[in-house]
């Protein structure tokens, strides 16, 4: 049965127990099943208290991570950056376990912010596969699945489509390493979103519901009603997590180019988005 989550990056990059308990209760009252937290930004001592708070509120969670290419990069030719990437991912995996989650997702193929002006070289690709395999084996021992997210060409050059992601996962060769299918990135990179999701169905471990403009789901064209019919047809039974962004998180503005608001209130992406998702799931993807 599909569960609906909300990525907390709409409000904060640094989720903390005392500061954000009220946010969890709001999400619970809006009928969310869980939240998505940034795993590598949580101090180890904080993870256990967040886990207790999630249990108190009655929410489950998934986690997300992304790597800064200047600090950690699975695909780098620099062994120190590859080592840092593996260590950062292992930290995120441990926090994921401590939070009581079972899945860590994100664009883990490469460090973000690095572009070469060409596609991935075989050496870079192989380095990335090796690094993710190491992290995947570590995650497997802790009962955690990894869902790797292809990003659009303006944010990543290593893996842009689900087909490329399938090739990558096959080379990693671990049953707990699959893909995150994101409607925003698919809207840009896939020639036919429905066909690409059908082809990748067995690899899709996680889904991000994210509009073409990153605003309220259903207010753009990247999350059509037919998407929910497709998910039911491929027997997807994982999370549908809303990923939206706003100008309330200054650190994300230059990274994601969020120059203007797409709704009157920040909360709209969550409050209105879950209504849109539940309505179309119930209707079987019809208008």
Automatic annotation (TrEMBL):
Domain named Xylose isomerase-like TIM barrel: which ranges?
Answer: 27-266
Q: Which InterPro entries does this UniProt record tie to the protein?
A: Sugar_Epim/Isomerase, Xyl_isomerase-like_sf, Xyl_isomerase-like_TIM-brl
UniProt keywords (A-Z) are:
Isomerase
Q: Write out the GO MF terms.
A: isomerase activity
Name of one Pfam family that matches: AP_endonuc_2
Q: Which PANTHER family match?
A: 3-DEHYDRO-D-GULOSIDE 4-EPIMERASE-RELATED, ISOMERASE
Name the chain's protein.
Sugar phosphate isomerase/epimerase family protein
